[in-house]
């Protein structure tokens, strides 16, 4: 094909080269990946059903947990089934439209998840530092406005990523060296200048994520300061146990992104499969851990699940 034909006739689909240099990775990774996927879907579904059916859980904090679970499930369904189809059936082809749709969902929903963590950190800050004002601050209206903000901010600011990538000319080369349609993995196949794509991905993505992280760290710093002043017996341990597990999970979510970026920067010193593996795991590991850390470790949700199980029997 010539490089002057328009994009609609140049490439109709892409091929995902998923660990082709390390075929053994596909074998040993498929089992834990499928188990993590089932755990993520099962745990998040259980959490959503419990919150939906238990009237005592119809509170702002649990609505935020429901939003987080929905985001996790969409991210898992967008990435993991396709990766497993490649591992098990060698179905590496993905259409032009499906590739850029996957790219958009991954970027927007990961940013939404980061923003949701920020709102949840603020919720914990108000609950611990201003408990008397909590019912008047964290209301159903607050959650509705927060959800609209989360959706609108990230849908709008991540929309240019697939648009900039889709407008490039792809002539002949259609093999993506990745398990997913990551922006830069796809853009590198084009003969056009991808400087703008790279700059927007880096500047836009890290501006949103870093602003969320700064507010999350600020919230948990204020929480820690308030907790250390508590005099009630056992209150410090309980607060630190709850918020500590939340903070560790958020730190894991952020750290794996940082490691992914660093491995890309140092790609000549590490195997090309390492950032690909991290990218795949980042779409399933947090989704499997979030409902356990945020949900199952919450006494009210555990009691709600137990009541539902008893009703089922």
User: What is the top-level CATH class?
Assistant: Mainly Alpha
Q: Which residues form runs of ≥5 with pLDDT under 50?
A: 1-8
Which percent band covers the strand fraction? under 5%
Kindly report the spatial arrangement of strands forming the biggest sheet. 2-1-3
The SSE order reads HEHHEHHHHEHHHHHH
Could you state the CATH homologous superfamily?
A: Rhodopsin 7-helix transmembrane proteins
Number of strands: 3
Mean pLDDT, all residues: 85
First-residue to last-residue Cα separation? 64 Å
Task: Give the CATH architecture.
Answer: Up-down Bundle
Structural class: mainly alpha
Radius of gyration: 21 Å
- Helix proportion: over 70%
Shape: globular
The CATH topology corresponds to Rhopdopsin 7-helix transmembrane proteins
Q: How many DSSP H or I helices?
A: 13
Report on this model:
The chain is mostly helical and 313 residues long. It has one domain (11-312): Rhopdopsin 7-helix transmembrane proteins, CATH 1.20.1070.10. The chain is built from 13 helices and 3 strands, in the order αβααβααααβαααααα. The protein has helices at 7-10, 23-53, 60-89, 96-129, 134-137, 140-158, 160-166, 183-187, 195-227, 235-265, 273-281, 285-296, 299-312, and strands at residues 13-16, 93-95, 175-176. A 3-stranded mixed beta sheet has the order 2-1-3. Helix 2 (23-53) crosses helix 13 (299-312), helix 4 runs antiparallel to helix 10 and helix 10 packs antiparallel against helix 12. The longest helix has 34 residues, at 96-129. The radius of gyration is 21 Å and the shape is globular. Residues 1-8 have low confidence and may be disordered.
């Amino acid at each position: 094909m010539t490089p002057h034909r328009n994009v609609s006739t140049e490439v109709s689909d892409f091929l995902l080269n998923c660990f082709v240099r390390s075929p053994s990775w596909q074998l040993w990774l498929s089992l834990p990946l499928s188990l993590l996927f089932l755990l993520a879907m099962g745990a998040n579904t259980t959490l959503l059903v419990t919150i939906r059916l238990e009237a005592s859980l119809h509170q702002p904090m649990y609505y935020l947990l429901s939003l987080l679970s929905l985001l996790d499930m969409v991210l898992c369904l967008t990435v993991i089934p396709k990766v497993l189809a490649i591992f098990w059936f060698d179905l590496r082809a993905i259409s032009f439209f499906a590739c850029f749709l996957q790219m958009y969902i991954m970027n927007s929903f990961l940013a939404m998840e980061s923003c949701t963590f920020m709102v949840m950190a603020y919720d914990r800050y108000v609950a611990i530092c201003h408990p008397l004002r909590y019912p008047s601050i964290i209301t159903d209206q607050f959650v509705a406005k927060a959800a609209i903000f989360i959706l609108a901010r990230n849908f709008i600011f991540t929309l240019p990523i697939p648009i900039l990538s889709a407008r490039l000319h792809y002539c002949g080369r259609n093999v993506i060296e990745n398990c997913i349609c990551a922006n830069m993995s796809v853009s590198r196949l084009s003969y056009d200048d991808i400087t703008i794509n790279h700059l927007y991905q880096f500047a836009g993505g890290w501006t949103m994520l870093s602003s969320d992280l700064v507010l999350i760290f600020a919230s948990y710093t204020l929480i820690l300061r308030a907790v250390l002043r508590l005099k009630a017996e056992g209150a410090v341990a309980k607060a630190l146990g709850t918020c500590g597990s939340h903070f560790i999970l958020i730190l894991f979510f952020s750290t794996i992104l940082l490691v992914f970026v660093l491995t890309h920067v140092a790609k000549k010193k590490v195997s090309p499969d390492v950032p690909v593996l991290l990218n795949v795991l980042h779409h399933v590991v947090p989704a499997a851990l979030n409902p356990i850390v945020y949900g199952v470790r919450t006494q009210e949700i555990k009691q709600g699940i137990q009541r539902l199980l008893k009703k089922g029997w």
